Amino acid sequence: MSVTYRSVSVPQGSTWEQVGAPFVLPEGVAAALAAAGGALVRTVYQLTEGDRELIALGYHRAGTAQQKLTELTGAVELFGELAEHAAEELAVEGGISLKVELPADATAWAEAVSAAGFVALAAPVSAAAPPVSADVVPLGFVRRLGDWDVPELPYFRQTTDFTCGPVSALTATNALGLTPALDPASEMELWRRATIVPACDAYGLAIGLADQGVASTVIVNTAEPLQLEEKPEAWRQDLSERTQAEFKARAEELGIPVLNADPGIAELLALVADGAIVLLLIDQLLMHADACAHWVTLHGVVGNIGFIEDPWTDSELGETWVDAHQQPVHAEALAKMSGWGEYRSAVVLGRS
After folding, report:
1. pLDDT tens-digit profile of 128-179?
2. Average per-residue pLDDT for the chain
3. Comparing C-alpha atoms, which of 72, 154, 55 is closest to residue 113?
4. Are 156 and 124 in contact (CB under 8 A)?
5. Rounded Cα distance, 130 and 42, in Å
6. Chain centroid to CA 223: how far?
7. Tens digits of per-residue pLDDT, 85-108?
8. Is CB count within 10 Å lower at the N or C end of the chain?
């Protein structure tokens, strides 16, 4: 019986009809494709065998070395073959992580995915900003392309729009066994210690960690005050600058090492390869099509790819914790997104 496989790229700004609509999309796939905007790189997959058909939507953030398959619709027994084709294409493009997202109650699909060589990702500590019900948190699976094994860190989705720094820091300290709690109370406590209102800078995060007995090193490329908002009101800019001056003085009092240098991605990846975990300041523009200062946790290296935990997900686009957890990013993309404007910053934590 003949088997036909197709993968159709749907660039942002284009509809299914504009790329020729080579086959009919199930309602769920069509809706998910329409929602998947921003900077998501989108592909629709189809495998047919006789009168059986399987269709899936795949997408990933720009610059990443992964692909997520979701909205699987049709003959479950065809999944293994479709996954083989998708994995081959991903590998050619330099990807190393093929993921699958399933509804929590999709037992038959979970069995088929596992049989195809995928392993379950550890359930998130927190999957989305509250309120969220446990029964709507999807399952996540990964198939590693190539011989690599990066340990999973716990995934915690930030509960506010401005606590990415504290969550990234707590993700790192929890993974290192330095602070056991990874919850909203700890998130807000560290934010109160580290904020320059409303965001957090490297000095504040390092001080907040020091207050918890966690040592770190700050790397910044300038002594000038940082503005993490594009057009802050005058009073907020003044408050931020005064707070940063106080943080710098406190960091010196506490003996926190500060390196005035550009935290280059090659150097940071080398530190991570030696066992460090890095809190990295990035601009979200490349991965989210929205310019915004943001902190992520850089914790693993495979060749020229760094692994991050991103505490932010664009749920309105269809993203979930599966997209942001154990996310491989090409070093070139990390370098492009690193920093905010001319400001480059990182906080380095070592393994005990």
Report:
1. 766 555 567 999 999 999 989 999 999 999 999 999 999 999 999 999 988 7
2. 92
3. 72
4. yes
5. 28
6. 29
7. 999 999 999 999 999 999 999 999
8. N
Are both 3-144 and 164-349 of the same fold?
no
Measured between alpha carbons, how far is 138 from 320 in angstroms, rounded to an integer?
8
CA distances from 187 to 158, 177, 190, 343, 345 (A): 8, 16, 6, 25, 21
* DSSP character string of 43-67: EEEEEEETTEEEEEEEEEETTBSEE
Considering the domain 3-144, what is its CATH architecture? 3-Layer(aba) Sandwich (3.40)
Q: Using 50, 70 and 90 to split pLDDT, how confident is the model at 121? A: very high
Which residue bears the tokens 């398959």? 69
Give dist(CA 120, CA 113) in Å, integer: 9
Answer whether 174's CB lies under 8 Å from 209's CB: no
Match 């060749």 to its residue by tokens.
303
User: Whose CA is closest to 128, among 293, 318, 283, 286?
Assistant: 318
Q: Provide DSSP, 263-318.
A: --HHHHHHHHHTT-EEEEEEETHHHHSS--EEEEEEEEEETTEEEEE-S---GGGT
Q: Is the dihedral of CA 73, 75, 79, 81 positive or negative?
A: negative
Identify the three-state secondary structure at position 350.
Answer: coil
The CATH number of 164-349 is which of 3.90.78.10, 3.90.70.10, 3.20.20.70, 2.60.200.20? 3.90.70.10
Encoding tokens for residue 186? 């700890």
Task: Kindly calculate the radius of gyration of the chain based on its CA atoms and give it in whole angstroms.
Answer: 21
